[in-house]
Amino acid sequence: MKGTILIVDRDLADGGYLRECLEKEGHRVTALSNGAGLADFLSEGQPAVFILDIDTPGVRERYLLHQIRKNGSSRVLLVVSQRGDPFLKEAIDLGVYGFIYKPFNLKEVCTLVHHLTC
After folding, report:
1. Which residues of 36-73 are buried (b: 16+ CB within 10 A; e: fewer)?
2. What is the DSSP string of 73-108?
3. pLDDT for 48-104, tens place per residue?
4. What's this model's pTM, rounded to 2 decimal places?
């Protein structure tokens, strides 16, 4: 098993395809449709990589990024639909590793995650 990945994405289609790609690469993947269940998930253990869609309810909150950062050394990737969003600078200041801009290439995202978990 290469690593544990958590995807939080309200669009189940994107989350499903991404999940399938990562599982084929040997990762254990959990997907949530909103940020509400994330606190419970964090109490169970820290995944290697978080992939969070900022348009998903409950994700665009400073508190969430603080909790992830406080709980360990996971890498956080934010899926964003538009450049220039003021939240992106704040996210960098809160320790986000990088951004995945929509529409994204699944193979490129899977390759990025592979490099973050090796």
Report:
1. eebeebbeeeebbbbbbbbbbebbbeeebbeebeeeee
2. --EEEEEESSTT-HHHHHHHHTT--EEEESS--HHH
3. 899 999 888 888 777 788 878 877 778 999 999 888 888 888 888 888 999 999 888
4. 0.89
Question: Where are the domains positioned within the chain?
Answer: 4-117
Rounded Cα distance between 63 and 29, Å, is 23
Q: How far apart are CA 72 and CA 31, in angstroms?
A: 19
Q: State the burial class of residue 26 (Cβ atoms within 10 Å of its Cβ: 0-12, 13-18, 19+).
A: exposed
Q: For residue 60, what is the DSSP state?
A: S
- Segment 2-61, tens digit of pLDDT: 778 999 888 765 668 888 889 988 999 988 888 877 777 777 777 889 999 988 888 877
Tell me which fold the domain 4-117 belongs to: Rossmann fold (3.40.50)
